[in-house]
Amino acid sequence: xxxxxxxxxxxxxxxxxxxxxxxxxxxxxxxxxxxxxxxxxxxxxxxxxxxxxxxxxxxxxxxxxxxxxxxxxxxxxxxxxxxxxxxxxxxxxxxxxxxxxxxxxxxx
Length: 108
Hints:
By secondary structure, the protein is mostly helical. It folds into two domains: about 1-65; about 70-108. It is about 75% helix and about 0% strand. It contains three helices and no strands. It has helices at about 10-15, 25-60, 70-105. Pfam families: DivIVA. It is found in: Cytoplasm.
């Protein structure tokens, strides 16, 4: 597994040499600030995922059934209801078309 080489503190404390035609120091600092925000976000995500792993390991060790997250279950149920509804609508449209166009064909 790859290791993290820099921390936000390392990035914050990094100094660059100023040359005659060097980079704009403010632009570099702004960019490094954005990188530091990303690092903080990654660290938060990693911490959250490690907590989730620990919780799931503890749950598996206790022999409890895994509980599906509420968000995913709700999404799946909504998609199933929507697809059933769409199927019902298509079936009704098909019946209507048969009624309307079937009568027109017979009349002609």
